Amino acid sequence: MKEKKLTLTLSAILIILSAVSLFIGVISIELSGILSGDMHQIQVFLISRLPRLMAVVLAGVGMSVAGLIMQQLCMNKFVSPSTGATIASSQLGILLAMIFLPSSTLAGKTVFAFISAIAGTYIFVYFMQKIRFNDIIMVPLTGIMFGSIIGGLTEYLSFRYGMVQALSSWLVGDFSLIIRGRYEIVYIVLPLVVLAFLFANHFNIVGMGEDFSKNLGVNYSLVLFAGLSIAAMITAGIVVTAGTIPYIGLIVPNIVSMFKGDRIKSNLIDTALFGAIFVLMCDMAGRLIMYPYEIPVNLTVGVLGSIIFIMLLIKKLNPVKGARQS
Questions:
Q1: pTM of the full structure
Q2: pLDDT tens per residue, the chain (326 residues)?
Q3: H or E segment at 56?
Q4: Cα 246 to the chain's mean position, in Å?
């Protein structure tokens, strides 16, 4: 009953914030104007505000679910698209598309981003399994270092081929340029999230370890690759649409698990809802703080996310220190 109350509460908050978000912007639109048939306000609503809302919500849902999947499969609460080189690999894929297929459409860039994100994420997880760090903090730190190497390669190639300016729009998370016809790729998040929900129990089993999975007749390698591929494709689709949005996949699953435990299937819906709420609030704050100017969402998310990340680190490390002292 408590779980249902939490889901209903999050759903109600998301609906209210979504309704408010539709009427925040430099161009003023009102519900009365839309209902009275004001064509200018209707066009702004349909071409800009509604697509932006859909992109924001789906980005929050996707990044949160991707982080939840990666944390479960890697058995580490600090692994996410940000700390697992997934975002950096997506950016490299977009750059490769611009270099080798300069006339490619957004869909073509998305395919390159998918392949690169899956490859980069799987390479990171493969090395983590081989090394097997004893300290949980070393895994995300290594992922950040690996992502920095990929980011450095991306910057070098962009400079070498004169793509620095062209790549910049995918390095910063920003929803201000989202309009109808330029965001529909993000709808790929919906079937992938549904797929994640259907295989949630398998991800839960794989998260218990390879031996445990084999004892239950689950193909460990196949499910691991499938789960990482889903997380990577979700991330790549969002990066292609809105750019880089950090921390969401890291902090949102951790906050939800504090209230509901670590079972992925029961957490997935609430994680998706809370992720959408978090990104939407940050986007609304970015539109209001310096109105009529706008702050990119990756800045507001980055500030709040870094603070919450530090708090999570302190919370996770304190019990470890206490156990060592005793």
A1: 0.88
A2: 666 788 899 999 999 999 999 888 888 888 888 888 888 888 888 888 899 999 999 999 999 999 999 988 888 888 889 888 899 999 999 999 988 888 888 888 899 999 999 999 999 888 887 777 666 778 888 888 898 999 999 989 988 888 887 787 777 778 877 888 778 888 999 999 999 998 888 888 888 888 888 888 888 888 889 999 999 999 999 998 888 888 898 899 988 888 877 777 778 899 999 999 999 999 999 888 888 888 888 888 888 888 888 887 777 666 544 444 44
A3: helix 50-74
A4: 7
Amino acid letter, 87: I
> CATH 1.10.3470.10: which residues of the chain?
76-169+183-238
Pick the CATH number of 76-169+183-238 from 1.10.3470.10, 1.10.260.40, 1.10.340.30, 3.30.70.3270: 1.10.3470.10
83 CB-near residues (< 8 Å, 6+ apart): 139, 140, 141, 143, 144, 147, 250
